[in-house]
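Shapes recur. Our protein:

. . .
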Amino acid sequence: MIYSYPDYYKKFRCIADKCPDTCCSDWQIVIDDESLEKYRNYAGEYRQTLHRNIQWEEGVFGHNRKGKCAFLRDDGLCDMYKHMGKDSLCTTCREYPRHTEEFENIREISLSLSCPEVARILMQKTEPVTFVCEEDDEEEVFEDYDYFLFSNLEDIREEILKITQNREESLKARIRKVLQIGASAQRHYEEGDLIDWDECEDTDKVCVKDEYELFRKHMRFLSEELELLYQDWDDVLVESEVLLFDQGESGFTENKKRFLSWWGNSSLPSLEIVLEQIVVYFISIYLLGAVYDGNILGKIDSAVGHVTVIFLLLLARWIKCSEKLEMADLIELVYRYSREIEHSDENLDRVEELDWFIRI
């Protein structure tokens, strides 16, 4: 069994009550069967409080009137943890923000950007992300597993990450190559000759005739095509669209120009590096999942689409803040966007079906 994880994985430590947006708020935390049975049989002094704050039929923790987990104390710490110890935590509470993708004899472990501390670590990282591999003697066999497809997907991902992290080229040029590979790989897969995935054609190139309309389309995807998880996120989207597009194309173009100039002279990490890290994050986690559904293009296009939208949200926040932006704004927008996308199976499926980019 091979285990891989990004090089910043072991830097993560939960900051508990110091977290600016606790994962114990608003979410419906599903309790795994083993923990649910343990809670049901718990006979300690804390039993009454424990049982009162679990919704047994749904198998989830209850919420208080503020919409937070019933076990979250006012000081930001977990009351169950205090009374029952760390072994009392269910799988979700124990493992988040760690996430594992499972393939035959491979486990790819990542940290979710939906966690503010993970977003902080990645957004402040300036060197290219690398991946650490370890292995043990365990073996397994998945039924009906297409190892040939998986092997080709590994090659495609390796090439895409290599291109994305080639800082000798502009990010726009790198992205265009990545999108072309996505279309080529999907075309060869459907023709039954994926081994030639890197034989690209002009028809695989993305055609952007109107960048302004492309940006507007991507913002509409967020408000019209996706499930809304947090009501206040809708306020962010509505406000952002007004700030970005109410002045028309000329106003948008001028704001974008000033924004790029401002960022280049700010103390924030390079914008190209920030966006590169986000592309690498989404590609590294989701592309190999095409071994189960064959949707190579959807996974690559959506990864780039996420970066486009995050760029627009940053631009809108910069306009709102009188042409200023702090690291806290960058971190907040990244982790909140991730929550809306990655905490919804419906949204994860939908973003891979959307027509993000048009080919020639």
